[in-house]
Amino acid sequence: MTDDVKEIFAANVFRLRKERGLTQLEFGDKIGLGKTTVSQWESAQKLPNAGSIEKIASFFNIPKSALFAEGNDRFITYDRILNLPVVGKISCGNGSFTYEEIEDYEPTPEAWVRGGEYFYLRAEGDSMMNARILDGDLVLIRRQEVVEDGEIGAVVVNGKTYLKRIHIKNDAIVLNSENQKYSPLVFGPEDNVRVIGKLRKVIISL
User: Fold this and answer.
1) pTM for the whole structure
2) Distances in Å between the alpha carbon of 116 and those of 48, 82, 86, 89, 188?
3) Is 55 marked active-site?
4) Which one is catalytic: 6, 127, 198, 201?
5) CATH code assigned to 81-203
6) Options 3.40.50.720, 3.50.30.50, 1.10.260.40, 3.40.50.10330; CATH of 2-69
7) How confident is the model over 22-79, as pLDDT tens digits?
8) How far is CA 101 from CA 34, 88, 90, 104, 120, in A?
9) Were both Cys, which of 44, 70, 95, 96 would link to 6 (CB 3.0–4.6 Å)?
């Protein structure tokens, strides 16, 4: 996974630099680092430290998470940044929806979250690894109670939150992992099951 992160970061920095019309030397000068360091980033030889990530994000006016995000919007300079909650526990009792534990707030481009309510969950374990969702990654969830069959979403079952691929079969809801070593989870009408959102984006954790 580290190699994947390096490749994603390398492509993002290369494109962002080119969009500004800067050479590696000029870009390095702008953020107080040498051409060799920039070259190592763009060739996916190494990742920057936390301080350098802060400098790069500030220079390009983007959230730090955008440097490690995949998708066509990863090269956009964002004007408005929103702080969305990273939620540790969700309560769905009595028909209500409540964030019981907010661990942090993640700076998020407004362009990512138009049309709806959004929040983050932190992925745990390796059950979704084949969907490139690994332990510690942040997953951006659009709050909604209905998803299409086969989509990845967040589900609360008997008080526990799952991020799985969701299938509806007759009166049952089947939660499939993206890792063959985990069996599907099947829940029936007797279980307290509630879909709470759809996966929209994965933010890779370093």
Assistant:
1) 0.68
2) 34, 13, 16, 20, 29
3) no
4) 127
5) 2.10.109.10
6) 1.10.260.40
7) 899 999 999 999 999 999 998 888 889 988 998 998 898 888 888 887 754 545 555 6
8) 42, 5, 7, 9, 12
9) 44
- Short-list 157, 125, 156, 159, CA closest to 141: 156
> In the annotation, is 91 catalytic?
no
Q: CA dihedral defined by 63, 67, 72, 78, rounded to 10 degrees?
A: 20
**35-42 vs 24-31: helix crossing angle, rounded to 10:** 110
Q: Residue 41 carries which side chain, given as an amino acid letter?
A: W
Long-range Cβ contacts of 17-20 (<8 Å, 24+ apart): 17/42, 19/75, 20/60
**Distance in angstroms (rounded) separating the CA atoms of residues 127 and 165:** 11
